[in-house]
Amino acid sequence: MDKVRASLAKRYAKERRFRVLGRLAIYASLSFLVILLSSIVANGYTAFQQTFIRLDVHFDQQLLDPEGMGRREALADADYSGLLKKTLREMFPEVRERRDQRALYALVSPGASYVLREKVLSDPGLVGKTQAVWVTGDDDVDMLIKGHTERDGPENERRLKDNQLGWIDGLLEKGAIQKQFNLAFFTSGDSREPGSAGIKGALMGSVFTLVVTLLLSFPIGVATAIYLEEFAPKNRWTDLIEVNINNLAAVPSIVFGLLGLAVFINFMGLPRSVPLVGGLVLALMTLPIIIISGRAALKSVPPSIREAALAVGASKMQTVAHHVLPLAMPGMLTGTIIGMAHALGETAPLLMIGMVAFIVDVPTGALDPATVLPVQIYLWADSPERAFVERTSAAIMVLLVFLVIMNAAAVILRKRFERRW
How many degrees, rounded to 5, is the angle at CA 188 between CA 391 and CA 193? Predict the structure, then answer.
């Protein structure tokens, strides 16, 4: 009896230690996750704001429309860069040397002249008038205003020189520098300039790629799962197929990229860097996940459902189509959404088919050159400019939001349509 009690005490002690270790593992995992998310948010939340500089622009008719005809072609081809420089010289008349003037022009982003152009084209009546216009500041100014760069230290070690800091301080005193919501981050394509770079092109590329992936993988995956689970005979061939499907689910994603490069681009001659090819590659990668989850959903339907349908005279096809499939569909949709979320975060297979190119234009279809959000993050992370660091983190936050939404949708669908037997 004493031996039994001693062994029980040892087992209880081991159980307590196991529980403690389990809790410590969970706490450590949550701590690392919090540290990672905190780092991403701390580096990226400032990207949702952008530094703007207010310029009192006189839309000089001699520069924009010397003929006075108001033709749209003439206004579109006018020298807006010269107008921007003229405005800055008028705001700081004491700046006379060319070197200082170049430093003054560098306070605003290279895309500021396009803002003036769009304003005139949208309202030609501005020609000859003076209006306050907010234009984006240069990325060095943006980093200074956001506190990411220091203004102290030797001048030759700073991106912004002493005279530029003086001009910025003067603009701040006048209230001519403000941080505003960075709408361009969501409405613009990629750019070499951080202040003009946005994620719309990558988002649209991801949308078109996922649409192609869904249209191909969902019907094929569901049909394959139904055939293997409900109609296929149980023999060596079906066993071989099942083993290979399970193995494909564990194949590294870059292998599918090599397959897409060899088959879809080199053999079939499809264009590189288009969502169509990306969708084909991701569909191949997602199919095993959908098939496995679809078969698991079909297995979860009780045999009594099939037996009852067959007992009242339904054929095998009618039993599957009208009774088994509707009950298994929530599980299939859950597996599909999880597979699509996996595809959304993939980078390696898309790099192999050329979706790593620098593309400024926002794609309008599945055959337009495009990139996707994970590849855009990869490209920005490799950029040396400090301003791209916050945009990289902000793009990661957007990607995580989409992944959370897709996984939440899978959970909601399962809870909403799941039946307890």
Answer: 55
